[in-house]
Amino acid sequence: MERLLEIKNLKTSFFTHVGEVKAVRGVSFHLDKGEALGIVGESGSGKSITMMSVMRLLADNGKIVDGEIWFNGRDLVKLSENEMQKIRGNEIGMIFQDPMTSLNPVLTIGDQLTEPLLKHKKMPKDKAIERAIEMLRLVGIPSPEKRIKQYPHEFSGGMRQRVMIAMALINEPKLLIADEPTTALDVTIQAQILELMKELKQKINTSIILITHDLGVVADVCNRINVMYGGLIVETGRTTDIFYNPKHPYTWGRLRSVPNPKTLVKERLKPIDGQPPDLLKPPAGCPFAPRCDYAMRVCMTHMPPLFEVGEQHKAACWLNHPDAPKVEAPVGRRHV
After folding, report:
1. Rounded (to 5) percent helix, strand, coil in the chain
2. Where among 197, 222, 247 does a domain terminate?
3. What is the CATH number of the domain that holds 11?
4. Pick from 169, 171, 174: which is nearest to 34 by CA?
5. Are 142 and 173 in contact (CB under 8 A)?
6. What is the pLDDT of residues 203-249, one digit of tens each?
7. How far apart are CA 75 and CA 68, in angstroms?
8. Residue 335 resides in a domain
9. I need a labelling partner for 255 at 20 to 30 A (CA). Which of 125, 224, 304, 333 fits?
């Protein structure tokens, strides 16, 4: 497989009046062309900040402190803002979390869809409108010739999210980043949006990074999953590895808090007790140790490396050390 994106030891911090918040603390992973990767974790785990670092869209007090972001042979960290503007919306498309606020309420859908074509492709206006109508049709919006003249408030939440997907894909980017694309949508619309992303991936062959707090969302769309916690990747592997053979207690906890639709006996869901780590003062050891039922003394003082636990499967947990006590994962096989 040809590599499209490679992130090496990324560290991103926010400098506040109370100190440096180390939001991303040394993240490394890759994405191949045509692949779909899921990044899963609870709020504050660093998943969205990792992708905002890739897009170079951090808040004014945010800074990439260290690391490299190689995209299509170039290190994005070293590019100027002008060079990044040529990549955003052109080579990398992004669907933001909230379709209700991501569209400009005073511009028609057509104006917003054609802007990337006029800016990056220098396409004539009539050709840009044709392409915009074609994209609306592709994402399943009925009567696109009529809808293109309407404003965002005339669309439902699900339709707005389809417009956002059309906008992100209109220039046929090499990479699509979807940040919680099903947030605030009901379950039926969520399923439609995820099915749409799978179809578009096959039609356009765009690589996808899907960011979510919900493991169920990535099960059907992604080839591989990175599980993030406390600004770090704590487990990474193929989707089947993460669901059927998880090796990190945090992943176990996330799986136990997700209902299994295939089980005949209703199981009580078990939440993960405790609070996420304070990234103003990150812990010396494993960030999950204070909430972990299996924590040992070493977990409190030393951050575990990413142990190889299978082919393309790694987990940052001391339980995977050869000398560690053997612990049976408290989650059964997940039917996904």
Report:
1. 35, 25, 40
2. 222
3. 3.40.50.300
4. 174
5. no
6. 888 899 999 988 888 888 999 999 999 999 999 999 999 999 999 99
7. 6
8. no
9. 304
